[in-house]
Inverse folding.
């Protein structure tokens, strides 16, 4: 198992200790999440992080970021493009050595994954 730090994960996922100093990992984590919040689902007026489309973010010791994400529906018209948008956004974060984005559909996305901010943005509050 490689040394990595999980920033965001689905329940019950394992976290492994990182050799990245805690203050640097905190900055990377904040910057990665900020970068993810610049990517929007073109059909929904909320960013993919707040929509709950990001299932897991791992930062490895070599500062490569691995992201598991999903879509609101498998037939989403931007399914082929969105992983590239995520990769491009996270690659702009200082200190990131590379980004690998995997599309997953298990568990399926549901509106329960949305933050209150996203629910407000789509008018559900």
């Amino acid at each position: 198992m490689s040394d990595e730090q999980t920033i965001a994960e689905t329940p019950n996922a394992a976290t492994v200790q990182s050799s990245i100093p805690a203050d640097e990992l905190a900055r990377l984590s904040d910057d990665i999440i900020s970068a993810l919040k610049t990517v929007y689902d073109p059909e929904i007026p909320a960013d993919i992080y707040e929509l709950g489309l990001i299932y897991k973010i791992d930062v490895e010791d070599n500062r490569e970021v691995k992201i598991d994400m999903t879509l609101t529906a498998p037939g989403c018209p931007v399914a082929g493009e969105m992983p590239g948008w995520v990769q491009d956004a996270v690659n702009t974060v200082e200190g990131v050595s590379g980004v690998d984005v995997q599309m997953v559909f298990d568990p399926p996305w549901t509106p329960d994954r949305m933050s209150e901010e996203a629910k407000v943005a789509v008018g559900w509050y």
Summary: The longest strand covers residues 54-60. The beta strands are 4-8, 54-60, 64-69, 98-103. Residues 1-5, 10-16 have pLDDT under 50 and may be disordered. The helical segments are 22-36, 48-51, 82-91, 116-121.
